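Can you give me the bound-state structure? Components:
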Amino acid sequence: MRAAERTGMTQDQWGRLKQDLLKSVGKSNFKSWIEPLELSHLEEGVATFAVPTSFVGNYVSQKYGDQILYHVQSVSPEIRRVHFQVPGNQARRPAQARPAAAPAEPAIRRDPMMPAAPLDKRFTFDTFVVGKPNELAHAAAKRVASGGPVTFNPLFLYGGVGLGKTHLMHAIAWELSERQPELNVVYLSAEQFMYRFVQALRERKMMDFKSMFRAVDVLMVDDVQFIAGKESTQEEFFHTFNALVDGGKQIIISADRAPGEIENLEERIKSRLQCGLVVDLHPTNYELRLGILQSKVEYYRTQYPGLQLADGVLEFLAMRITKNVRVLEGALTRLFAFASLVGHEITLELTQDCLADVLRSSERQVTIEEIQRQVSDHFNIRLSDLIGPKRVRVFARPRQVAMYLAKQMTSRSLPEIGRRFGGRDHTTVMHGVRRIDELRVTDSQIAEDLELLRRTLEA
Ligand SMILES: Nc1ncnc2c1ncn2[C@@H]1O[C@H](COP(=O)(O)OP(=O)(O)OP(=O)(O)O)[C@@H](O)[C@H]1O
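Here's the bound-state model for the whole set.
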């Protein structure tokens, strides 16, 4: 602690910097990653922070290292690196610390000076599940990864949070590096681009910065919307972009929205970004979510051998958690971890208990009345016949479909659903739900009806 005070940055100052970081990383990231960091000591230009686990240390170093260094340098310009260490772990001395953003495993880069961010080993084409919503983006990414002549430049991938943009970019980088190991492939976030740029400015190393980026063969910049409103970063990005395109080098960009929709982005950059191929990742559909869950479960089976998974759980999750793939994955991780702790088969009940909060927050607030209206419209029958007592197939089947959707899309209990369907018994509802669950697999028409209805109800 004393060392920290001697070289200028005090605990108080670190406390204030943390508050600045809170603003830039957001509350929940702050709680998970920044708040636990304690300034441990400063030595030979390295600021060392105590972290509770090495996982937190690695993650923070990769994700926030640059940002933390940037803030730390605003009060202690002599600090060159930040280091994260579990107290008592003497194996790594601060003097051997890597630069903040350096990956645990070397990223794809030839030049040790190259400012690449680490690539996630799990983000390959093999682990990317393709479905209707992402097939175009996947095909475009595959084309770029094949490494042929540059046909569209840039490739611009956009889509909502957690839909696989970063995954696809990493997959391109992995494949390119396998096919053409001599290529200088650099992946980094727009935020990292900015921090590198600001650092180069501060250290008067702009020439190095420029020549470093201009020596790249394939440049990938993730979340480019981040530079909106940041004038000088935009300016530098524009020059880098032009130099690379002019040199016939491939650029791949991602953003949360289409180029034309990014506010506070200079027009000339927008139009440059639109020059190549712009493809979007659509929100996931039920089939894609189910496919992703199935592929992740294969992995979990190796991690938790012997853990049983009851039928219908994945279908339930794919139906109920529609927000994004990250949330879906998080739910599955939690479920497996929980089930292995309690040593219990993963049943629907356990799933509902364990994920109650996630399920509640992704609830679509669809009401049973809405479901009934949509279903009767869809099957072209009267609402009174859907709810009424007649048991002929033309009414009974749509009724079962509506009950099934009510069970899947709302949190109403079986008796409650029964009451809303003309005062039927909960066993009738249960039978209906089971019947549709079976037909969903064997009858493609029913599967299609369900998907269409679900989409309309979610819209
Ligand atoms: N089609 C898919 N197949 C397998 N995993 C996927 C797919 N789409 C997304 N994922 C997984 O979902 C998680 C979030 O994806 P990713 O980080 O690529 O999202 P993103 O679009 O870059 O989101 P953000 O806008 O937050 O940066 C990752 O773990 C990724 O592997």
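A couple of observations. Residues 1-7, 91-113 have pLDDT under 50 and may be disordered. The longest strand covers residues 38-43.
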